[in-house]
Specification:
The protein is an alpha+beta fold. It has one domain. The protein is built from eleven helices and nine strands. Strands 2, 3, 4, 5, 6, 7 and 8 form a seven-stranded antiparallel beta sheet that branches. Helix 3 packs across helix 11 and helix 5 crosses helix 6. It is globular.
Length: 299
Amino acid sequence: MHYICIIIILHLSESVKRIFLLLVFINFSILAYFISRPYSFYKSIAVRYIDSFDQLVINDSIGHDTLIINTIKFLPPRKSTVYTIKKNQRIERLLEGGGNCSNQSVAMGAILSGKKQRYQVVHLMPVPEFLEGSGHTVLQTIYKDSLAIFDLLGRSLLKKNNHSITYRDLDSLANENAILSIETNILNSNRDSVEQYYTHPFKTFIIGIVPDEEYNKFYSFNKWLPIVTQETRYTQAFYYAVACMFNKLPHIYVQKKDEKKLSSYPIYTVDRILSFTLIITTWLSLGVLIFTIIRKAVI
């Protein structure tokens, strides 16, 4: 591949060559930075701001109560983190017990999606540590004709005062800087302890929601991408980068009231700027190559 790049560079005019080399230098410099922090690329660029989570409605969904309860009840103990991006593979790994809280929540959502049930993946994101992959993830869907949140890793239905909670409860607790007093209604003893996520001060967290439409868009795109034999966080980061290039990466929606909290951390702002710069310079580099090829063909 590097021989091809050298041949192309040799055929560029001096001015175009300088532009191309500058873009390549910028690309590789940013890539070198994100290789050491692969989660940061996805997390920083995926954030989108909305006025209110009330805009993300799934109340019109059919609920398959038996499906989600029985799936959670029979999950084996948790195994290692899963890096696959394919929908069916994610489901297979979940049923084998594979994955962290995010992996398992997304995979359970994929199972529900197969039955036309709506869902949302809800991220509890400590700022700015979520850029390194810290935090916790749960699944919100319809259960007993109303919204409910399931903690896949904790094999639990989350409740407060013996009632199912929703994102509204998490949001109100966050606004009040309260201590989370969430009860975990345990459905399966093959679980990780997750209670610590619901007892820490919530003021250090913000909430991010990924609607099911975002994952549907992502799965439709990545079904054309090849399957790798060895899945790592770097292969996953590469596929996420490709999805970013075509605006197919699942967006994490954050309420505008939390924008100032995020932006107050320079590392978030820097990572976000670098992520968007990487996408822009990559497209510009490809544009220069395409322009050169067309120009040579015409001449």
